[in-house]
Amino acid sequence: MAVTEVLLGLLAAVIAIALYITRRNLTYWKRRGIPCDEPHWLYGNLNGVTKTISLAEAFARVYRRYLGTGPFCGFYTLQKPCVLVLTPELTKQVLIKDFANFSDRGLYTNEEDDPLTGHLFALSGQKWRFMRNKLSPTFTSGQMKFMFPTVLSVAENFVDTIQAELEKNEVIEIKDLLARFTTDVIGSCAFGIECNSLKNPDAIFRDMGRRIFTDRRHGELVNTLISVAPGLARKLHVRFVPDAIANFFTKIVREAVDYREKNQVQRKDFLNLLMELNKGNLKFEDKTDGRGLSIDEMTAQVFVFFVAGFETSSTTLAFLLYELALNPDMQQRLREEIIEAVGQHDGKVTYECINSMPYMKQVISETLRKYPVLPNLQREALADYVVPGHPKYVIEKGATVFISVMGIHHNPDIYPDPQRFDPERFSPEALKTRDTINWLPFGDGPRNCIGLRFGQMQIRVALTYLLQNFVFMQSGLTEVPLKLNIKQFLNSSENGIHLKVERI
């Protein structure tokens, strides 16, 4: 009997301690006097909400609710206290002025057990700094000019593909078609491989592109653990990338590298730059490790270039064509600008030509404002940080800091009537009235999107060819308003984008 009483006492003590820790964790912000919604005892503030709305909208709602209460508000992911930035001043501090304290994203990397997670987007510390510096030359204007003819060639094939689709049906689901275009562009510019996605919608590269966003190695609970506690997941040797995807990209890179080395092939593409890095010594924290990039490290960089390059550009293009279909006057104005610009360059689509069109730039910028593909930015505090001018607001070391890009872009005080598509928001005159920190589709500061120029080039080339050859219109299948996919962390349409298309 005594043993039973002792065991029951111990169990009661364990439960009491667990309840105390849980309560203490979930009163973190309340005890500090920081605004925060009442959290669920297990899920915190977001996990339950995102069953019915997208993660982008979940963050945006919290942003709108506490706007004006201070530099940031608190929220919980499971029981982990996190920060959501509310002011342009703190946004600028985190991304630019005090970047040294917020240089890491705090994302999951496990190069030993899961090599594809060791890519530039997720790397931290000295490894990120080194990789960023070494990869930056790939995305200069000069390098874009070298890749430009390849993009043009794919765009010409794209026009033929759309024409072939029109012979079957005048209404086209444009999102997948655009993803096939950007897949072929990235495949050629990153790997030097013809993916043939435009000719074959079930081509292996396109299939893998889809599976990256649909296949899951684990269920929701483990994926949440990886997100909330990446350090613990790493200690447990948890793998994130499904084997089929990891094996495919590793095989592609190995074969391409072997072929180029044996046949002394040189191409001005992303893989070639990585091979050049492979020949040199790498320095981490001022120490030379005496080796170049391993195949796994090269594969990780190619993998993230492929994922980011095809998905972000195709999604942005789909949203853009959707808005032009709903706004035919804007579409015609942009078409006239394209025709005039091409005419001024002897009827040729050149690199200078696609960068000479101000209204195209405005249309792209407004699309990225209304539909930022990456709707939230994430950083991790490397040391305790007191918000300047707000001594009560302290971001503790290790805290995850979020910036709601969607919230900022849909803030009516910054962008009046934010649901309205209006490229004039980005006219030269309008830009002078607005802080640049309030437009963040590519992030800002030293850790902004490294592929910004490449993405813009893809989009501008595609628009130039598409609007010269086709008119895009609303059809009976066009969803108005557009529903966003609540299951994806990137902004994307839930049911595709169906438009009526006519050849000019």
From TrEMBL:
Q: Which UniProt keywords apply?
A: Endoplasmic reticulum, Heme, Iron, Membrane, Metal-binding, Microsome, Monooxygenase, Oxidoreductase, Transmembrane, Transmembrane helix
Query: Subcellular location, in the record's words?
Result: Endoplasmic reticulum membrane; Microsome membrane
Question: Which regions span the lipid bilayer?
Answer: 6-22
Kindly indicate whether the keyword Endoplasmic reticulum belongs to this entry.
Answer: yes
Q: Which GO terms describe its cellular component?
A: endoplasmic reticulum membrane
Q: Enumerate the Pfam families for this protein.
A: p450
Q: Which cofactors are reported in the record for this sequence?
A: heme
Top-rank taxon of the source lineage equals Eukaryota
- Topologically, how does it sit relative to the membrane? Peripheral membrane protein
Q: Which family does it belong to?
A: Belongs to the cytochrome P450 family.
Q: What is this protein called?
A: Cytochrome P450 6a2
Q: Which gene encodes it?
A: CP6A2
